[in-house]
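$ ./design --mode recover --in tokens.txt
reading tokens...
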């Protein structure tokens, strides 16, 4: 009986050893030292033809050359860009699924309860390649010509300013920055949400709103150049070439506009994969075709590597959370 038991134990031990060796072999393969060995899927959380879509595609083409594998863009819009974000977050952390990330979906929506994720633990930030130029614009026939004149007018006319933003006040970087401005200058604005930039542009040109806080895009440029629209200030740090003499909110009030346009992947990406992506994107960002496209659509190239982007996110994310919390309380009072 004892011999039979010993044989069984030996057999179990042999199977266990084989399993352990096979497991180690699998783990060694799982590290994928030759990454990437197949195409990479890249989710763009917006519809085709938008600013992010147009900017991302030439960058992916450039980076593909340095990785030796194609990066395939897949548009996955919806849910305020959170559907595309979830596709990235739920992907296998092997480096073969990445996506574009922007300020609203990454820095704002997790605090509002309007996204399926409440923090950023499910993501690995990889790099930043741009930021929106975000001016506060008015029609040329507005009763104020400068930001200072506007503040004086706004104090005398509470809530008379109808300003277009791309969503709710507490759910957009524009709304949060403008709310902080309201607190500093003791003025009150009326916010008009728009689904798209084109609708907001039509509204300000038609006189249905008095002010506009949307990102610069090609349709807006002719009206600025022709003098039909005037920039009074910038929410963003970045400014439009030729209009650099106009102050931004950071210069005026120390208000940092929560803005990124970058690349992220699921959490748990191997260090070797992150380093290869870091290297490839740092080269792709200098591609002449990418830079030409960015100039054509009036978007600045703002490169932050993985460490720089993570530092920025760690600084801005909690600050945005505090602002959203206060704004939510204020909005709840206004509804009563």
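writing sequence...
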């Amino acid at each position: 009986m004892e011999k039979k038991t010993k044989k069984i134990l030996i057999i179990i031990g042999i199977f266990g050893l084989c399993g352990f060796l096979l497991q180690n072999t699998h783990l060694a393969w799982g590290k994928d030292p030759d990454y990437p060995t197949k195409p990479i899927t890249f989710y763009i959380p917006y519809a085709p033809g938008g600013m992010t879509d147009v900017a991302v595609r030439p960058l992916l083409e450039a980076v593909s050359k340095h990785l030796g594998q194609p990066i395939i863009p897949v548009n996955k819009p919806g849910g305020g860009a959170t559907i595309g974000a979830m596709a990235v977050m739920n992907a296998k952390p092997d480096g073969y699924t990445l996506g574009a990330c922007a300020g609203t979906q990454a820095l704002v929506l997790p605090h509002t309860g309007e996204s399926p994720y409440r923090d950023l633990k499910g993501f690995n930030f990889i790099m930043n390649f741009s930021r929106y130029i975000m001016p506060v614009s008015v029609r040329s026939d507005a009763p104020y010509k400068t930001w200072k004149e506007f503040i004086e007018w706004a104090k005398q006319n509470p809530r008379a300013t109808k300003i277009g933003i791309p969503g709710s006040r507490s759910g957009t970087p524009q709304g949060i920055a403008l709310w902080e401005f309201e607190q500093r200058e003791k003025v009150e604005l009326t916010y008009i949400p728009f689904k798209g930039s084109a609708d907001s542009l039509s509204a300000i040109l038609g006189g249905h709103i008095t002010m506009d806080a949307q990102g610069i895009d090609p349709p807006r440029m002719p009206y600025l150049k022709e003098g039909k629209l005037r920039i009074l200030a910038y929410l963003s740090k970045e400014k439009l070439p030729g209009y650099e003499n106009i102050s931004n909110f950071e210069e005026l009030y120390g208000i940092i506009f929560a803005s990124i346009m970058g690349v992220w992947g699921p959490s748990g990406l191997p260090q070797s994969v992150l380093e290869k992506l870091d290297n490839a994107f740092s080269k792709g960002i200098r591609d002449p075709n990418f830079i030409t496209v960015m100039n054509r659509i009036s978007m600045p190239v703002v490169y932050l590597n993985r460490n720089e982007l993570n530092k920025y996110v760690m600084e801005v994310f909690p600050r945005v959370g505090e602002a959203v919390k206060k704004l939510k309380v204020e909005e709840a009072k206004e509804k009563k």
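exit 0
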